[in-house]
Specification:
Layout (H helix, E strand, L loop, with lengths): L1 H16 L13 H15 L1 H14 L10 H9 L5 H18 L11 H4 L10 H11 L7 H15 L10 E4 L14 E7 L3 E5 L4 E5 L3 E3 L4 H19 L5 H10 L9 H14 L11
Antiparallel strand pairs: 1-2, 1-5, 2-3, 3-4
Keywords: Plasmid
Length: 290
């Protein structure tokens, strides 16, 4: 036994010197395993998309309301997200849907990472599919890296981009265009709360959105007029936060959400005051002026 072992070791060492490698047989995947692999790979690739869609549903259905007053507070405590992070994931998911619906040439080559989608946020919705398909072409018909997408977007922006010109506190009107997240919000006014290089975070009376410049139009109010409408928005939001509004109350608030002047008429003021009395909200709040 000892002799045969030494002979085996010697033979193995000799094979190693001659450059020969032992071949270990690997069992091929079954049809079921191939299917499982594809399914699991798709889950990994769509992780950012699934997260964005889940966050959007949590926000839209207000499933956080039992523990948190706002969506941002919920995301911070539950997922350790910054204020902007959930909106980035939601926007990435919407862009993914936009590409899956409108890309024709490379229908089955879609983003697998959020970093491949993020540069597309700088473009208008109608330009995103062509930018993605150009990036796929430059990647040799494969999923492009974020760097390739970013470079394509940069070149497109150099031709026809416009810088963000809005300021914090400015009142703008929402232009839904073909943004699916803005269905029902076209014509509503909003307050710009944060300004980034290519987008703005805006507040309506009941929601917050991360929008690009093409989805906003300034109402050209003075700073004082913007503050007046902001206070009206606070009062409307207080009513919304009660979570008890009936259809008549919602009808009034949705009407006020589409005014294009910085003050309420006498009748509109009366209607808002009646709702505040009915639902017990505080009409004046010192924090509104901050």
């Amino acid at each position: 036994m000892a002799r045969s072992t030494r002979q085996w070791r010697k033979k193995r060492k000799s094979s190693s010197k001659s450059g020969e490698l032992a071949v270990i047989p690997i069992a091929p995947l079954t049809v079921e395993e191939e299917s499982d692999r594809y399914s699991l790979e798709r889950k990994v690739e769509r992780a950012f998309y699934e997260a964005g869609m889940a966050l959007m549903e949590l926000r839209d259905r207000k499933l956080y309301r039992s523990t948190h007053a706002t969506f941002e507070d919920y995301c911070r405590d539950r997922f350790d997200y910054t204020r902007r992070r959930p909106y980035q994931l939601i926007e990435a998911a919407l862009i993914y849907d936009n590409l899956s619906e409108k890309c024709v040439k490379f229908l089955h080559i879609l983003p697998t990472k959020e970093g491949q989608v993020q540069p597309l946020t700088q473009l208008e919705w109608e330009s995103q599919p062509s930018a993605w398909e150009t990036a796929v072409e430059e990647a040799g018909g494969k999923v492009p890296t974020g760097r390739i997408v970013k470079d394509v977007v940069r070149r497109m922006k150099e031709k026809n981009s416009a810088p963000i010109s809005f300021r914090v506190g400015e009142v703008c009107q929402i232009l839904a265009k073909d943004n699916p997240e803005l269905r029902g919000k076209s014509g509503c006014w909003c307050i710009v709360s944060e300004v980034y290089e290519f987008s703005c975070l805006v507040d309506t009376w009941n929601e917050r959105y991360l929008l690009r410049g093409e989805n906003l139009s300034s109402l050209d109010f003075s700073r004082q007029q913007c503050r007046q409408l902001k206070e009206i928005g606070f009062r409307m939001n207080d009513l919304h936060e009660t979570g008890q509004l009936d259809e008549a109350a919602l009808w009034v608030l949705k009407g006020l959400a589409k005014i294009t002047r910085p003050e309420l008429t006498a009748l509109e003021e009366k209607l808002l005051a009646v709702l505040e009395l009915e639902y017990g909200t505080n009409e004046s709040n010192e924090n509104y002026d901050q």
